[in-house]
């Protein structure tokens, strides 16, 4: 996102019309845009700037972003850019059809990797309008592409090439600078596709691709981003109100990964899905991430795959989490949720180990939904050299409470449900587990467990004596439920560390 803003085009946006009484000048648009990118810690230089007849010509434009030149830098050699004042009060922007961006990184072992990215945006229509104290950008382009085929450094694949292409793009962005930088944007693309290829002595040749249709999204950010780029000041920037959010969705997607000639077996993995979404957020309240897929189908083929190929489908899949990011003396909320719904295997795979159909083919489901309160006792953004005591500190963070909002595991005709609440005494640790002592209760309920044991014995994968032992163990920690072949259990951990099952101490 930063590189596109630095280039001054790809983050462009839909304009509100300027009022009839005032027209934005090209020079004013250029000055205010420089002020905006400067608030991100970026620098734009030109060889010359010439204004004539309502057109500002910027020659030899170079955009540089290097928050730490010893670790990261990105330089975009854009070339000649013109800003032309239009009759409707807007400013149109003309840029080269393509330009190169050189990205350089240095890892912890002082190994430098250099990447040359070629950005192309032929026939792009870019305009700038004034929106109050902010600038609003408008971008429409039939195609924007990003190509990486020049990669240098240690442990990089040979003949590497990456290409990303977006089709029929429209985008809008409202950018403002001042005491706090602000930016909001929306974007749509009829399609997004990508390919990647490379050759590695150990992994062999790899060819991968993906495609999406109906792509759309929004971004929003406010705060001192230049300060946030400095690791020493990142926490202060968040505490002072910096926030950023990204949301995107798509209608359909496909992917393919083919590997050949490596030390491991050749493989061919492909798949498709229906609508999906992704979300990311960062602020003083925490970092959040969410991703959802629907109607997922995956096919795996290869020499090392049982039967040569397998197919798996999922009705839905998703993961969400929220975690505090700032050091605090007060507990803050955290969340984690994992969902896998309607997992099905194709019959050819079932028939390999259960040709008689002894096991139910019901779709499998998994739900883990957790929440709680916790805190960081130290600054997690601090430089490693400045936080050596974090590794030595026995308590860099604390969990004060944990809620098991929902637990669902269902497969092969059996289902396990659970929920519970726990608190943690951080003043004491369990000597065996080396963790704060929990106190609370977990409620569990299972249906179909005995029937599943019988089927596994019939299938020959579970000896009958082990099935009997499993039944005896379940009888020690659970009691019969209200329906046939059901068990319920209330597992309690007391304040003094005892573990009770349905009110009785566990016998082991």
Secondary structure elements and pairings:
Blueprint: H1 2-7, H2 26-38, E1 42-45, E2 48-52, E3 55-68, E4 72-85, E5 91-94, E6 98-106, E7 112-120, E8 125-131, E9 134-152, E10 158-176, E11 181-200, E12 204-223, H3 225-229, H4 234-239, E13 243-250, E14 252-260, E15 267-273, E16 276-283, E17 286-302, E18 309-323, E19 332-345, H5 347-353, E20 364-376, H6 388-392, E21 397-411, E22 414-430, E23 435-447, H7 449-459, H8 464-477, E24 479-480, E25 486-493, E26 499-501, E27 504-505
Antiparallel strand pairs: 1-3, 2-3, 3-4, 4-5, 4-6, 5-8, 6-7, 7-9, 8-9, 9-10, 10-11, 11-12, 12-13, 12-14, 13-16, 14-15, 15-17, 16-17, 17-18, 18-19, 19-20, 20-21, 21-22, 22-23, 23-25, 24-25, 25-26, 26-27
Organism: Tropicimonas omnivorans
Pfam family, one: DUF2125
Protein name: DUF2125 domain-containing protein
